[in-house]
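Fold this complex.
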Amino acid sequence: MKHLIAPSILAADFANLQRDIELINQSEADWIHVDIMDGLFVPNISFGFPVVEAVKKHATKPLDVHLMIVDPDRYLKAFADAGASHITVHYEACTHLHRTIQAIKELGCKAGVALNPHTPVALLEDIITDLNLVLIMSVNPGFGGQKFITNTYKKIEQVKGMSAVSNPGLFIEVDGGVNLQNTSQLVAAGANALVAGNFVFSSDDPLQTIQQLKQA
Ligand code: DX5
Ligand code: ZN
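Structure:
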């Protein structure tokens, strides 16, 4: 399977969000990555339901919603209602992760778990068969435009190894500092979905940049 590209609208121009969504619609991107930050789990606040609903109104591609919030169970239904196709919660934010994952699936969404850079992949051993997606954070979550952490390659290989045995259809997604310098190595390590924010939206030609990330 060719790897998927998920541009993160955190790096879009919020005053021209419809334009940037339409750009993603026209591009070779597969998903639209939507970063939700609550100012508690991460030291930043992004945006909430009105923005997700507005994005959904114009998007022709699935919304890949990444919840960087404490106690995400409180808001799963609201994000599903707002148009999320995939909902990813953080391992570090869930006390009863298995219950949370089942709740996401019962809402009709694909369920993902994100791991912060310090969180070992081995902690997924007893949940991996229940997951549609694992999101490996390659920066500390909270901000776009940060430097890629190279330990990520090892973690992707570990997830790939686990998925080969117990969940071959798993999406292995990488988020943070993705660019054309690291894309092929990420894919070689086993990543099959790449999030890219600043690298896409700060480029001179975002359409072409998405195409290059897709072809890499
Ligand atoms: C970081 C977010 C990322 C961010 C990626 O906390 O989860 O999705 O938008 O942005 P770049 O690609 O600029 O690192
Ligand atoms: Zn994200």
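Residues 124 and 159 are 9 Å apart (CA to CA).
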